[in-house]
Amino acid sequence: MFSIVARAPTRVDLAGGTLDLWPLHYILDATATINIGIDLFASVSIRSSETKEYHLESTDQNKIACGTFQYVCANKDLALPGLVLSALWREDWPPLTIKTNALSPAGAGLGGSSTLAVTLVGALNELRVRVIGEARLPEDVLVRLAGNVEAKLLKTPTGVQDHWGAQRGGLNVIRYPLKGPEVTTLRGQILDGIAEQLLVCYSGQSRVSAVNNWEIYKRAFEGDQETIGRLSSMGEEAQAAAESVLSGDGDAFLAHSLREWELRKQLWPGIETRVTRKLQELACSAGARLSRVCGAGGGGAMLFLTSPDRRQKLAETLTNGGGRVLDANVAREGFQICKMVGV
Predict the structure, then answer these.
(1) How confident is the model over 317-334, as pLDDT tens digits?
(2) Taking the CA of residue 15 as centre, how many other CA atoms within 13 Å lie in the half-sphere pointing to its CB?
(3) CA distance 162 to 147
(4) Which of 42, 48, 185, 331 is 20 to 30 A from 164, alpha carbon to alpha carbon?
(5) Rounded Cα distance, 56 and 234, in Å
(6) According to CATH, where is 3.30.230.10 located in the chain?
(7) Regarding the domain delimited by 187-325, which CATH topology (the fold level of the hierarchy) does it fall under?
(8) What architecture (CATH level 2) is domain 3-182+331-341?
(9) Contact in structure between 32 and 241 (CB atoms under 8 Å)
């Protein structure tokens, strides 16, 4: 008998979302993406099955699938773990029982499904090494595999920021040279400063980011010059924000993040809703320094930065305004193996 328990953090994005969609970043002259891991974890527990069948269970979705390797890999109710299993495991290897759980609200724009994919991929990779004797797959291959699984599942292009946020935690600056994405992860003073100011609030409105991003993606590759122009301006601000982060200039970073957010709202007005706009107005009245919708918007969670002495007042204001303030703090570490037995 063997078992493994693993987890990874979701993320909030501070600049350059959507620009992480391949190959969108390669048609722009300036791009970068910045995000921070938060401790709304996705967790995975995998153990050797007590029977000859495979067992998949999602605690947060209240779904179960049991049967042969072929059956669970093709199961539609739990398609994500099934696809990851088909990519990394083999029918002639020991059958598994896999249980998953996600703390992020569904449709919150925090990269919950991507985080779950990274956690599943990482845990199965470790079992392949320790139980089967396979070579350990490197970090960039695991991240790419998780993204490819999501693309197959969603039938749309997928970005990389959610997966790297889950893999690394901390504050991630992602840049896009021609050889492929480069990720710089910070865990020092600037991350500590943001952690003191951070507040995440769920609007109560679920949304589907892949649909929103797909519309922008299509317009860009159909040659819509207005869309390309706004994406270019967003990329310039995101790149400037990245440079500010890497140099430790928190005030300049905040200014560029704000300007990127204003450009993003022009690119797709539906990124805001009546509810998120109301919460933003309340936050500004309570002294928030930054307010923006996470992910592709149209609902979901919102990120706020405020001075440490105003965080409690801001939380109360948002709660009274109908928002649900999430118990979310900065996650300084990414994917982690929490426990292993018998391997």
Answers:
(1) 999 999 999 999 999 999
(2) 35
(3) 9
(4) 48
(5) 41
(6) 3-182+331-341
(7) Alpha-Beta Plaits (3.30.70)
(8) 2-Layer Sandwich (3.30)
(9) yes
CA distances from 91 to 85, 99, 130, 139 (A): 10, 19, 17, 25
* 191's tokens: 């991350």
CA–CA distance, 239 with 59 (Å, rounded to integer)? 39
* Residue ranges of the chain that CATH labels 3.30.70.890: 187-325
Residue 155 class from Cβ within 10 Å (0-12 exposed, 13-18 middle, 19+ buried)?
Answer: exposed
Sequence-separated (6 or more) residues with CB below 8 Å from residue 226: none
B/e letters for 168-207, b = 16+ CB within 10 Å, e = fewer, are bbbbbbbbbeeeebebbbbeeebbeebbebbbbbbbbbeb
Q: How does pLDDT run across 25-82, given as a tens digit for each residue?
A: 999 999 999 999 999 999 999 999 988 999 999 998 899 999 999 999 999 999 999 9
> Which SS3 state, helix, strand or coil, does residue 16 take?
coil
Rg value, the chain, Cα: 20
